[in-house]
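Predict the 3D structure for this chain.
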Amino acid sequence: MQLIRNYHDAEDITGDVFFQASQELEKFRGDSTFLTFLNGIAKYRCRNHWRSVGKQRKAMKALTDPSLAPEPPPTPPEILIRAEDHQRVKDTINKLEEPFRTAMDLRWLQGKSYKEIEEIMDCPIGTVESRLDRGFEQFQKLLKENSDDV
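Done. Predicted structure below.
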């Protein structure tokens, strides 16, 4: 009872322990006392109970914690804004100088990894990083210029 802290769970586990002991009696070799054998089964059952309780608590927290709730699907206006933002990003990337345009397109629009960009552009990973950094600087500058025009 001390390990479980819930009378009904402790009763269930006690029943499970004696049932499992009766099922595994032929495995008892007599190297230790029967109490040691029984205690081993009880520890195993208690450990499993605590794991199960932990999983249940996590599941309950997920149901009650709003920060863990799934995001609602976007509304039509949000979808439109995202599409407009995506188009704006695409247009701005297309205004970049080469080879920054290609690096930014591969990374941001196509979702390629640095390794993939390295292979596609046939240049060292350090060059990829440099082109992305400089491309991002140009990108920010162009966005700022375009927003000043609006």
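The mean pLDDT is 83.
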